[in-house]
């Protein structure tokens, strides 16, 4: 991905430096790993493996671009107003608000440029572009963030909270899994299994985030711990309590394993990622 990004010394240099800072500054890369794991699980035609692998590279990089842009914008003063991300100053602290906003704006279309360059069937490229666009937009991540901002300081029921996070967090995780399946030309049963798996891990991921916000410290998280509680945001911990939230995450991990059981041993990496998502400490 480093080689695909515009060099930092090309004009406008501040913008390109900020884009690279946002994308290459670390992180778990869970979304990219999900793309690869799903694609490798569903590879039905070994003869086309080279093209699929190249497509997976582009798709994995694309979801990381969307994720990076969303973090840059989420950290802005008009959103979550955070000064720390991945153990480093957030983009607007490092480069200023205007450049950070433009960096996020530029990363988003670049993701679709990279999807368009995948060496796979045009019909599959269209499916991939549509999948990522819906997940990132008002019916996905951006819509979930809007609901989140509108409910600061307000109570939410568990179904309302689940709906918000299915959009804000789950949509992009689901898109990552489905993109892997699309690039590999997954069959209908394979896609159904992937979608069920993705919805379980998407909710589990957010529950664990909520748990870590109250149990981990800033140095481990790489971002400000306790911020959701300080901002009076509804979370699974505030709604259910710490132990029930942990039990819910564990149950979702089991659901994820059950969903991909029909895919057999080829889904071992997806199973391992479900385990990681629930057991992680940051």
The best one-word shape is: globular
Helix content: over 70%
- Rg from Cα: 18 Å
Cross-sheet strand order for the largest sheet: 1-2
What is the overall pLDDT average?
93
Which oligomeric state applies?
single chain
Beta-strand content? under 5%
According to DSSP, the number of beta strands is: 2
Q: Helical stretch count?
A: 14
**CATH superfamily heading:** Farnesyl Diphosphate Synthase
When the domains are counted, the total is 1
CATH architecture group name: Orthogonal Bundle
Distance between the termini: 23 Å
| CATH topology group | Farnesyl Diphosphate Synthase
Elements, N to C (H/E): HHHEEHHHHHHHHHHH
How would you summarize what this structure contains?
The chain has 14 helices and two strands, in the order αααββααααααααααα.
Task: Characterize the structure shown.
With 282 residues, this protein is mostly helical. It has one domain (12-279): Farnesyl Diphosphate Synthase, CATH 1.10.600. 70% of the residues lie in helices and 1% in strands. It has 14 helices and 2 strands. The protein has helices spanning 13-24, 30-41, 49-74, 91-95, 97-116, 122-136, 141-150, 158-183, 188-215, 218-221, 227-230, 236-240, 242-260, 268-279; strands at residues 84-85, 88-89. Strands 1-2 form a two-stranded antiparallel sheet. Helix 3 (49-74) packs antiparallel against helix 5 (97-116). This is Geranyl transferase. It comes from Corticimicrobacter populi. Its cofactor is Mg(2+). InterPro entries: Isoprenoid_synthase_dom_sf, Polyprenyl_synt, Polyprenyl_synt_CS, Prenyl_diphosphate_synthase.
């Amino acid at each position: 991905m480093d080689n695909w990004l515009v060099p930092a010394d090309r004009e406008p240099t501040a913008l390109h430096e900020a884009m690279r800072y946002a994308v290459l500054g670390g992180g778990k890369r869970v979304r990219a790993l999900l793309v690869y794991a799903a694609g490798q699980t569903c590879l039905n035609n070994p003869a086309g493996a080279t093209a699929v692998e190249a497509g997976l590279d582009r798709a994995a990089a694309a979801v990381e671009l969307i994720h990076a842009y969303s973090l840059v914008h989420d950290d802005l003063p008009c959103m979550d107003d955070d000064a720390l991300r991945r153990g480093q100053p957030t983009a607007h602290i490092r480069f200023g608000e205007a450049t950070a906003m433009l960096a996020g704006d530029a990363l988003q279309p670049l993701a679709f440029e990279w999807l368009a360059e995948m060496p796979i069937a045009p019909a599959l490229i269209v499916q991939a572009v549509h999948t990522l666009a819906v997940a990132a937009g008002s019916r996905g991540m951006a819509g979930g963030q809007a609901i989140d901002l509108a409910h600061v300081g307000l109570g939410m029921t568990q179904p309302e909270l689940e709906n918000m996070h299915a959009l804000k967090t789950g949509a992009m995780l689901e898109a990552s899994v489905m993109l892997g399946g699309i690039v590999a030309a997954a069959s209908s049963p394979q896609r159904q299994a992937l979608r069920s798996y993705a919805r379980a891990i998407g909710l589990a991921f957010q529950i664990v985030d909520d748990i870590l916000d109250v149990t981990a410290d800033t140095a481990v998280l790489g971002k400000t711990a306790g911020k959701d509680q300080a901002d009076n945001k509804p979370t699974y911990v505030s709604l259910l309590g710490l132990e029930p939230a942990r039990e819910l995450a564990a149950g979702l991990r089991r659901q994820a394993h059950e969903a991909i059981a029909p895919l057999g041993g080829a889904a071992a990496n997806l199973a391992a990622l479900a385990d990681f998502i629930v057991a992680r400490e940051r």
